[in-house]
């Protein structure tokens, strides 16, 4: 019937055709939603893999759950203008809100037990554009792909030691991170850590020229390495107390923002690969942390530090992580916003 | 008879089919984007936001055209129950077309996300960040999306039923091109 190009003549044939169109539409919808492909890496699956054995803490971020807010400014020195036409690189002062945090799903974790520390940051340009980012202290990421990150979470959550061995076998890039975790010095202050964006982004300058870059925040505070055991003695919430006290007594803390420009051929899609030494770097400004604020009542709690919220002049590269982080952070935000009663904004219950 | 149109005006038909394609794309993009962490997540969400705002503008134009031109009458031999169902489903479709983009914008505002469309067009927020508002608007946008798709399928099934089984000319009133041998309710 269809081949002759005519509509079906019989009522029954027509009903079959209608049922096929509706059923096919519904099936295509279900497929697109991922219901027919349980193997698809979804934000839900990554969030489930992040959760500790006892389950996630309702109302909190699904990862980097322990943290403390700060406010301050990004002081651009104007050097960035040659790389990107983003307004925040024009010489001047831009308001900044951020959050020091620990790479753990447990908001009550003991500071000395968490190897990875992070910094979430939002810089607002005068025209209302925002630049959000989330950086961590290792100089390269643990794995090459979002799928490998999921596999790492699954393998490290298993009691069976063979699981991690098998994971490392199929993801050899993890070895460098494991070495960093074992050998990199600890500090007893958020102010003494360097934070790295790790993912590559593309800067577009005023003439339309493009460069692939990564950025880092390097501390201006003197770095005093201590052992993990020493840090453990200082108490479970030492880092929050220390940064609060440091800023109260020593004043604002500063980090220099350094952007590194990739050479042709550098691995731009793989944050587990540091770029070789000698790449061109440009100091684009200084992050000044002026005030520490409690997370619960502070201005950072309800910000999703989605690294794909970017101003004109900065966009994502072929690095697959920013998209994955955006998708998972969004889901994490949706969950914690819906659970806000479990972690009310103020100490008292939310109305 | 002479005062009531036999067909929707060409501009109404054009908007109907243009929006039909866009709305179906929107629904598929919506469920697709929230279920992936792949790089396509970012372009999909940008299209979803841009198309959503565009559709909101288009539905306002479409409603104005509907009020201006009216709609052809349904066949007289349709049972009152079916007629009521048709009216309600059309009302629901218009409702979804208006409400869905507003809920989407609202949930982005309530999450303090900047709403940036294709071409860098930024839509200023009219709602402050609010966990409760976000949860409410997000849930409404999500679940109504599935209801919207269900009504679209129902509408499609009804249109095909009119075109293939009843052959009562109802499909022809909105057909994208003039149908040969079409019949009108009066004939």
Automatic annotation (TrEMBL), chain A:
Belongs to the catalase family. Residues 17-350 form the Catalase core domain. PROSITE patterns: CATALASE_3. GO terms for cellular component: cytoplasm. GO terms for molecular function: catalase activity; heme binding; metal ion binding. It comes from Bradyrhizobium amphicarpaeae. InterPro entries: Catalase, Catalase_core, Catalase_sf, Catalase_SrpA-type_pred. This is Catalase-related peroxidase. CDD domains: srpA_like. Its EC number is 1.11.1.-. The keyword Transferase does not apply. Heme binds at residue 329. Keywords: Heme, Iron, Metal-binding, Oxidoreductase, Peroxidase. Its cofactor is heme. Has an organic peroxide-dependent peroxidase activity. The active site is at residue 64.
UniProtKB/TrEMBL annotation, chain B:
GO terms for cellular component: plasma membrane. This is Cytochrome b. Its cofactor is heme b. Belongs to the cytochrome b561 family. It comes from the Bacteria. GO terms for biological process: respiratory electron transport chain. The keyword Transmembrane helix applies. The chain crosses the membrane at residues 14-35, 41-65, 91-112, 142-165. Signal peptide: none annotated. Pfam families: Ni_hydr_CYTB. It is found in: Cell membrane. Residues 8-175 form the Cytochrome b561 bacterial/Ni-hydrogenase domain.
